[in-house]
Design goal:
This protein is of the alpha/beta class. It has one domain: Lactate dehydrogenase/glycoside hydrolase, family 4, C-terminal (L-2-Hydroxyisocaproate Dehydrogenase, Chain A, domain 2), CATH 3.90.110. It contains 10 helices and 11 strands. Strands 3-2-1-4-5-6 form a 6-stranded parallel β-sheet, sandwiched between helices. Strands 9-10-11 form a 3-stranded antiparallel β-sheet. Strand 7 and strand 8 form a beta hairpin. Helix 4 runs parallel beside helix 5. The structure holds 1,4-dihydronicotinamide adenine dinucleotide and oxaloacetate ion. It catalyses: (S)-malate + NAD(+) = oxaloacetate + NADH + H(+). InterPro entries: L-lactate/malate_DH (IPR001557), Lactate/malate_DH_C (IPR022383), Lactate/malate_DH_N (IPR001236), Lactate_DH/Glyco_Ohase_4_C (IPR015955), Malate_DH_AS (IPR001252), Malate_DH_type1 (IPR010097), NAD(P)-bd_dom_sf (IPR036291).
Length: 341
Amino acid sequence: MFTLRQVTLTSITKRAFSSSAVSQAAKVAVLGAAGGIGQPLSLLLKKNNLISHLSLYDIVNTPGVAADLSHINTKAKVTGYVPDNDGLKHAITGADVVVIPAGVPRKPGMTRDDLFLTNAGIVRDLATAVAQYAPKAHLAIISNPVNSTVPIFTEALKKHNVYDPRRVFGVTTLDIVRASRFVSELKDTDPAEAKITVVGGHSGVTIVPLLSQCPFSFAEEELKALTYRIQFGGDEVVKAKAGTGSATLSMAYAAARFTDSLLRAVVNGEEGIIEPTFVKSDLYASDGIEFFASNVELGPDGVKKIHPVGKVSDYEQELINAALPELKKNIEKGIKFAKEN
Ligand SMILES: NC(=O)C1=CN([C@@H]2O[C@H](COP(=O)(O)OP(=O)(O)OC[C@H]3O[C@@H](n4cnc5c(N)ncnc54)[C@H](O)[C@@H]3O)[C@@H](O)[C@H]2O)C=CC1
Ligand SMILES: O=C([O-])CC(=O)C(=O)O
């Protein structure tokens, strides 16, 4: 039986690199690592050569997941922690990036907002620990509802005076991954050629695909059906999984891509890396919207440049108009919770 909080087969060595140095490797922590997303995500991250230490935390089962992954002959050392013996503190201390898929997933008939009651508290507690033990880490928040969990994280960091908006990211990559795949299915092309911009937030009508900006054209009915499918792609998976959860494998793929982009910009110093993500943004500040997903250029300090939404069609403007009030409500709900709890 594992009684130690650390189950790695190698000992922890002091990190001998700086996070700003070029071509260095990083410590990445995954919180919720034993879950449906956490396990395949950790597997994909184990293959990432920019990671020297993969640190896995969950309230259960992490020792087994870590022991299993630690046998794969890639560079990263793997350690696993549970809450005993200050596990969370040890899991995140010194982390360059913390990826957070902790929390409950949807069942058929639920909206992402229905997860708020359970996940808000989980995220708030993890954010408090991050503020204390990993205040300089870049944070990739997957836990739903993303439109509210990112504001909750932000407020918790503010309470501890360690908030840097350049380092807090809501992971919306799956929306882009889906959009690219769905368009390529329709147009019979390689998904790599179908780069679709999706802006707004990460739930239903707040997900706004900007298909007018892609190189393909669509008939009106096709455009509406495609837009709906991108906005409600998560529901397709929830329905098909019939009560056993929501997207995990495609999400793990998307989060591994986002984490890799972040590491390439932050740790490796690569330039020109652009990922869509839900961040503190001024794009719709005049509408009272504090956070918004759009294409973001990543740099050594995290967010380098938030790209504007760009030219949109009348239809897309209608979609944005429908998204903004819902997004505002979700954001305010997160902020209110964090301030009161
Ligand atoms: N941002 C996005 O695009 C997507 C977000 N999600 C969200 O990701 C979250 C996780 O989904 P799944 O992995 O499918 O759920 P899951 O239930 O399979 O795994 C969640 C894991 O979190 C752990 N956990 C619970 N409380 C914790 C805590 N306080 N600290 C650390 N770990 C804790 C659980 O033990 C479990 O292993 C859900 O909220 C889901 O809605 C899912 C798909 C896409
Ligand atoms: O639909 C869900 O609840 C999970 C999710 O965020 C997605 O698949 O986009």
